[in-house]
Write a structure and sequence with these properties.
Elements lengths: L1 H26 L4 E2 L1 H7 L7 H14 L7 E2 H13 L2 H12 L6 E2 L1 H14 L8 H12 L7 E2 H10 L1 H7 L5 H9 L4
Helix pairs in contact: 3-6, 5-8, 6-7, 8-9
């Protein structure tokens, strides 16, 4: 019975790929989504340096082969991660976005950098200063108090506290964006 159910789910996912490909090719006739198109899709203009930098960071996290474009397979992987990915996978992706120097640890500067951008994007939703938010994150998440957050500390810390989870999981409101922009019913 479980096998039939997973086969049906696989068929539904495969059935969704053709219309998604058609839409992708209409938006990106070259077969490659560039950064400026990515910003446009999310409605982020280049007027804010912080928003532009944040979108560039997200874009690079989805550009797995680092060729400065998101091809259809990378796009499908990104959509799957954001819409259907397990919490653990989404947190690993968030960690990757925070970890700008890719050393496997987050220092205060890396966390503060993303928190500043999130505060500007969420304007009225966050009532603490970025420095205070960063201090609270390190207080709650940096278990061994070494001034760095490892992936395991990040994963455990995010799941301990709803406030921390909201900040660390980089909620980009992707489900509603995807439905609105791509006509996908999830």
């Amino acid at each position: 019975m479980g096998q039939t159910q997973s086969e049906e789910q696989e068929e539904v996912e495969l059935a969704d790929i053709q219309p998604l490909y058609t839409v992708f090719m209409n938006v990106c006739p070259s077969g490659a989504l560039h950064l400026h198109e990515f910003r446009k899709i999310f409605g982020v203009q280049s007027t804010s340096e912080d928003e532009a930098l944040y979108m560039e960071t997200l874009f690079k996290s989805f550009d797995t082969n680092r060729d400065n474009v998101i091809d259809f397979m990378e796009f499908v992987a990104a959509i799957h991660l954001v819409l259907r990915g397990k919490l653990e996978d989404r947190l690993k992706w968030s960690f990757k976005v925070y970890d700008r120097d890719e050393n496997g640890k987050l220092d205060r500067q890396e966390v503060k950098h993303i928190i500043r951008i999130i505060c500007k994007l969420k304007k009225n939703e966050i009532d603490m200063a970025p420095n205070a938010i960063c201090d609270r994150i390190f207080e709650l998440v940096d278990e061994n108090k070494d001034g760095q957050i490892s992936l395991s500390e990040f994963m455990e810390g995010a799941q301990k506290d709803a406030w921390i989870m909201d900040l660390l999981s980089l909620d980009t409101n992707a489900c509603s964006w995807f439905r609105k922009k791509w006509g996908k019913k999830t």
